[in-house]
Write a structure and sequence with these properties.
Blueprint lengths: L1 H12 L8 H9 L4 E4 L7 H10 L3 E5 L3 H13 L4 E4 L5 H12 L5 E4 L1 H4 L2 H8 L3 E6 L14 H4 L3 H5 L5 E5 L4 H10 L6 E4 L7 E7 L3 H12 L5 E4 L3 H13 L4 E4 L5 H13 L4 E4 L14 E4 L6 H8 L9 E7 L1 H13 L4 H19 L4 H8 L12 H4 L4 E3 L1 H13 L6 H9 L4 H5 L16 H13 L3 E3 L7 E3 L4 H4 L6 E3 L1 H6 L12 H13 L1 H12 L9
Parallel strand pairs: 1-6, 1-7, 2-4, 2-5, 3-4, 5-6, 8-13, 9-11, 9-12, 10-11, 12-13
Antiparallel strand pairs: 14-17, 15-16
Helix pairs in contact: 1-3, 2-3, 15-16, 19-20, 20-22, 22-25, 25-26
The structure holds adenosine-5'-diphosphate (ADP) and magnesium ion.
């Protein structure tokens, strides 16, 4: 049987091998067992029922709540020469009639259908007269009342168990914690279901995130030391930076190609083809690259710029190590990235609600950058997997970040921001903290407020590091208009109330003493912070610096 499966995989779908656990899922289903599959988006769930649809006699009925996607799937399948059709309310009568007729004659391999239509007596009756290969229930988490995607129609799908007792059913979803999995099995009345739960964890990927400090040089060292011959992807935000970085790496002996949506389609296709077929190619790309790319031996994914969300980071880094062998997810980021992404966000035409969501996503991404505990734990917790212990295969596990109890200084910092009216940038607030009676401080009378001089235990650079971390972790916000004005955020409350302990990264010790892998041979951390803060404090100069650096206006550069 599995020989047949492999043959169909190659001949019909054009893939060389199964991804785990596709082969096992397919075997069970073809043998007639019910199956539950939980696999991240992009993992390859569709194949788990599309291939059995061809191996088992009769038509496979696929239940999906997404009418828009049905049509795409049907077109894609048709291109592979698979006979597929769909029934949904968006289709004209003639088309529905034609599909029903094909179904009756047993001429369909797959039938996509919306749940409410499937459950109409007429449809059930029609299906009762057909030979059915299997039922696939996609987006099966919709059956869960606790989830945010609950669809009442999905509850009725349990009727399939009685109406079609001999037809195996497979339920698939990308998101289901333990409770939801149990709910799916019960509410769909799956019998002795084999469960294949592939969480979000990609244990062979080693996550590393460092401070940006002449990013290209850092990248070069990383490639030379760890991946001199390997295939990998380097993600950049702008097209210009993509091209420059590709050229720069090529000059240094790497086989690097650019890829972004601004290149002619043929050239893009050519570069993609080379990346897939040649060994050891480095693709320098914007996020335009990657959808549907399935190259098993990508040994690293490097980010020279901060992705705008954890979802994006996960998806992009997830292109590394599909073969299960060790791979690196390597990233450097700086506050310029944050400023830049925030500017993009604020200047977009999106509705306020969407911007709010995007702001939160960016904050979460920054949180991942700044944590002092296991990166993988944080990443997985973001996707709802809360039961992982520290992984031992990320930078913070392998090389614990020196930390210190920053609760007290954080409270001082927050209080200085608050007492000065939440109308100033970081330099001014630091002046207040360290008791520096600058002209501006005296002018505003801030040398007479209670927080003046309360933070003498740290120097200016140390305070900068504290502020960077407070911003990155969402305790402090920066105004969107571009003046670098700090304000307290909701997130501060527990800290100010003394209900939270804050661990901060000990940046200074890192720079002075033991060099981290990221900053080996690089300039001291404090210098970087100073540069970051100069930018941060004056967004106009930041904007200009970015424009100079990247040669493009800091807008409209996503592909
Ligand atoms: P999901 O439904 O889990 O989000 P899809 O079924 O849409 O994922 O598959 C994601 C991508 O992976 C598709 O481009 C698909 O063609 C590809 N894919 C699936 N299985 C394989 C395989 N065994 N080998 C190569 N590519 C695959
Ligand atoms: Mg899918």
């Amino acid at each position: 049987m599995m020989d047949d499966a492999l043959r169909v995989l190659k001949e019909v779908f054009g893939y060389d091998r199964f991804r785990t656990p596709q082969d096992e899922v397919i075997r069970r289903l073809v043998e007639g067992q019910d199956v539950l599959v939980v696999m991240p988006t992009g993992g390859g769930k569709s194949l788990c029922y599309q291939l059995p649809a061809l191996l088992r006699p009769g038509t496979a009925v696929v239940v999906s709540p997404l009418i828009a996607l049905m049509q795409d799937q049907v077109s894609a399948l048709s291109q592979w020469g698979i006979r597929a059709g769909c029934l949904n309310s968006a289709l004209p009568f003639e088309e529905l009639a034609a599909t029903e007729q094909a179904l009756r004659r047993g001429e369909l391999d797959l039938l996509y259908i919306a749940p409410e239509r499937l459950l109409q007596p007429r449809t059930l009756d029609l299906l009762g007269h057909c030979r059915l290969a299997l039922f696939a229930i996609d987006e099966a988490h919709c059956v869960s009342q606790w989830g945010h995607d609950f669809r009442p129609e999905y509850l009725q799908l349990s009727r399939l168990a009685d109406a079609f007792p001999g037809v195996p059913r497979i339920a698939l979803t990308a998101t289901a914690d333990g409770r939801t999995q149990q709910e799916i099995v019960e509410r769909l009345a799956l019998r002795d279901a084999a469960r294949f739960i592939q969480g979000f964890d990609r244990p062979n990927i080693r996550y590393r995130i460092g401070q940006k400090d002449r990013a290209r040089e850092q990248l070069l060292r990383f490639l030379q030391q760890e991946h001199p011959q390997d295939a990998g992807v380097v993600y950049c935000l702008s097209r210009k930076r993509v091209e420059e970085t590709a050229a720069w790496l090529s000059e240094r002996g790497f086989n690097a190609l650019p890829y972004h949506a601004g290149l002619p389609a043929e050239l893009r296709a050519h570069h993609q083809h080379r990346f897939l077929t040649e060994e050891g190619l480095v693709m320098v790309a914007t996020i335009a690259f990657g959808m549907g790319i399935d190259k098993p031996n990508v040994r690293f994914v490097a980010h020279l710029d901060l992705p705008k969300s954890i979802e994006a980071y996960y998806q992009e880094t997830g292109r590394a190590g599909r073969d299960g062998l060790p791979a690196d997810a390597w990233m450097v980021y700086g506050l310029q990235d944050v400023i830049f992404l925030r500017q993009m966000l604020e200047s977009s035409q999106a509705p306020e609600l969407q911007k709010q969501i995007e702001r939160q996503k960016l904050e979460a991404m920054l949180g991942l950058c700044e944590i002092t505990s296991c990166r993988r734990q944080t990443l997985l917790a973001y996707f709802g997997e809360n039961d992982h212990s520290p992984c031992g295969n990320c930078d913070t596990c392998l090389e614990p970040v020196p930390i210190w109890d920053g609760t007290e200084v954080a409270r001082k910092a927050l209080s200085a921001v608050y007492r000065s009216g939440q109308r100033f940038g970081v330099n001014h607030v630091i002046d207040i903290l360290i008791g520096q009676a600058s002209d501006k401080v005296r002018e505003r009378g801030h040398d007479r407020i209670s927080t003046f001089g309360i933070g003498k235990e740290l120097d200016r650079n140390q305070w900068r590091s504290v502020f960077r971390q407070l911003v990155a972790r969402g305790y402090l916000g920066v105004d969107a208009q571009g003046h670098g004005v700090l304000h307290l955020s909701e997130r501060c409350r527990p800290l100010l109330r003394g209900e939270e302990v804050l661990e901060l990264r000990h940046e200074e010790r890192k720079a002075a003493g033991k060099q981290s892998r990221f900053s080996r041979g690089s300039a001291p951390q404090s210098k970087l912070d100073a540069a970051d803060y100069a930018l941060w404090n004056d967004l106009r100069s930041a904007r200009k610096a970015l424009a100079d650096d990247q040669g493009v206006p800091p807008y409209v550069i996503f592909h």
